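Supplementary Methods, section 5.1.

A reviewer requested that the exact input to the structure prediction be made available. We therefore reproduce it here, unchanged from the version used in the analyses.
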Amino acid sequence: MKIAVVSGICKRHDAISESVLGTIKALTVGINAECMLFAYACDFDIPNFRRTDNATDLLMDAFFSNAELIIYHFGIYYELFNAILLGNGRARQIVFYHNITPKELLSQSERRLMLKSERQIISMTMADEIWAASDSNKIHLETFGITSTKIQVVPLYIKDRFSAASLLKHREGAVRVLYIGRFVESKGLADLIHAIARARMVTRTSFTVDLLGNQTFSDQRYLIGILELVSRFGLDDVIRFAGEVSDAELDSYLLRANIFAIASYHEGFCVPLIEAMNAGCIPIAYAVGNIPTLVGDLGELIEPGDWAGFGDKLSKLIDFFGDKQQLSTSTHIEVNGKIGNIGDIDMRRRNHLEQFTFRAFSARVCNHVRRMGVKEKIETAALERDEAILNRGRISS
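The structure derived from this sequence is encoded token-by-token as follows.
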């Protein structure tokens, strides 16, 4: 069967882009679908990609017109998404909803784009089904009047690069704290800097903080303000701004870090947090959006806005890793008010992360497509493929 996958762009180190590629891979392998990606631009070398500049060109495309299923990925306004209002007249339509940032967390200049994004959310009523990346995204969609029965929760996945590495990391020198994300106001970086300043006042342990993020989608003026705040607190020797890094460098940062810290005020999913947990980091974050679901009792959750409390909890984690030069599975650690040993935490974390593997993601995506009434078409296509293989065998013999 032919499946059209529509997105704004596909860029490296972007969670939505990764899920776009994952959707295509899952459907290509899982149900033998022929997928075509339509987007403004794509950084990845994939065979079935068509650069498409506007919704009119998309609607006129021959593959799109003949597709039996159309999947739109949505995280912010993009003009191609307007094609959902018409579709191709025959295909079922699915929207994979990744969330939009609330207007109150944006600058005045950004709010106009978010208003346009909200209008496109209303257009999702034209979809046959909506896949929300988290329960919090599902709740957000319901505030726009979208029927809950139309929404299925389909969590994202992470690349299993570390196989849920243990907290038992060999540490040399300072304890390492890591932040990964965009440099925008909604990510609460100002709060994080305040928390780090407080932690340095309280802790007796040497530590460093690495800030990694995609600058293309960041607010440059906000970033300048953050760097000025770092200097004002005299944290230049503690906080290191790395910006955007290569895949290999990212893996290195993750595997060397002991703590993942994010003071975001809004998270529809938060892939970096799951990546960090998979790399053997203890997370500490504000309890907002999807964060509590991801962290559970495997990290520290702080009330949003309480940067002082964030700093105190961060200092305790830093001191723990500073005191424990040689960790073992029996070493006890207090996380989220509970005391347990590292071996138990590692086991529970690995079990927790199973739901975010590509295997689990692929099964969810393929099962939802089968259940939507395109099952017969999938089975017919598979039957035709098998008959063609048999016929080729008869001819060759």
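The longest strand covers residues 34-39. These observations are discussed further in the main text.
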